[in-house]
Structure formats: C-alpha cells, structure tokens
C-alpha cells in the first residue's frame, strides 16, 4: 500500500542540493509554464526543489499556490517516478495558469520522465 506523504526527505533543501543538479548536466523538461531540470541520484527515490522568483509570480500567495499544486501532484506520483533530483523553475505567466492546466502539464512531464527512465 502506498502512502502519499510529502516527507522532508523528498525535498531539495540546501543550496548544495540544488547546485548538484545544476552541475550534473541535467535533462530538461519544459512547457510554457515551467522548466524541470532532472539529474539522477543514488537515494532510491525522487526529490524536488523549487525556484519561483518574484519576477515570475509577483505575489507570495501566487508563488505558494504554484508550489502547493506542484507538491501535491508530485506527492501523488512520487512512487512511480525514478530516483532523480528535480529543480522546478517557473516561467513568466505561471501565476495566471489555471490549476487544471498546470496539473495537466505536470502529468505530461511525469510521463516523459518515467519513459526516459525506462529507456536507460
């Protein structure tokens, strides 16, 4: 039985964690709202971190809502994802995206990530 918790160990917390992803020549997954950089890890589970600047989403409530949606979607699909570290980078206009559309884009990105992991 899967537990759908979003534990502390599923997050990139330190600047060193983020830097490891940037230095590892990550795979890029992009759409009109965001870019996700993914690099393999040896932990056996996926982790995610966020960079959403004030230029991309002006209000803190908008930034927090985007993070909440992405975290929830990640939490539900976490058990199916390969062991990678991901950095979620917001693009201009993400604050105006509808929740339904953002979830649809995320589902498509998770499928691409799983497919890439199955190939290698």
Automatic annotation (TrEMBL):
Q: Tell me which SUPFAM superfamilies the record gives.
A: Ribosomal protein S5 domain 2-like
UniProt key word Hydrolase? yes
Instruction: Name the keywords, alphabetized.
Output: Endonuclease, Hydrolase, Nuclease, RNA-binding, tRNA processing
Q: Which GO terms describe its molecular function?
A: ribonuclease P activity
Instruction: Tell me what reaction this enzyme catalyses.
Output: Endonucleolytic cleavage of RNA, removing 5'-extranucleotides from tRNA precursor
Which leading EC class covers this enzyme? Answer: hydrolase
UniProt-listed Enzyme Commission number(s): 3.1.26.5
| Key word Nuclease present | yes
Homology family? Belongs to the RnpA family.
Subunit field text: Consists of a catalytic RNA component (M1 or rnpB) and a protein subunit.
What functional role does this protein have?
A: RNaseP catalyzes the removal of the 5'-leader sequence from pre-tRNA to produce the mature 5'-terminus. It can also cleave other RNA substrates such as 4.5S RNA. The protein component plays an auxiliary but essential role in vivo by binding to the 5'-leader sequence and broadening the substrate specificity of the ribozyme.
Protein's UniProt name: Ribonuclease P protein component
Q: Which organism is it from?
A: Catenovulum adriaticum
Gene that specifies this protein: rnpA
């Amino acid at each position: 039985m899967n537990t759908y918790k979003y534990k502390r160990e599923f997050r990139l917390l330190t600047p060193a964690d983020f830097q490891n992803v940037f230095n590892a020549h990550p795979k890029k997954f992009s759409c009109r709202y965001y870019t996700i950089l993914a690099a393999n890890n040896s932990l056996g589970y996926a982790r995610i971190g966020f960079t959403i600047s004030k230029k991309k989403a002006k209000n803190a409530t908008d930034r927090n809502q985007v993070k909440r949606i992405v975290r929830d979607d990640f939490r539900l699909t976490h058990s199916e994802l390969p062991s990678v570290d991901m950095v979620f980078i917001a693009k201009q206009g993400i604050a105006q995206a509808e929740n339904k559309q953002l979830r649809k884009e995320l589902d498509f990105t998770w499928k691409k990530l799983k497919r890439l992991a199955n190939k290698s």
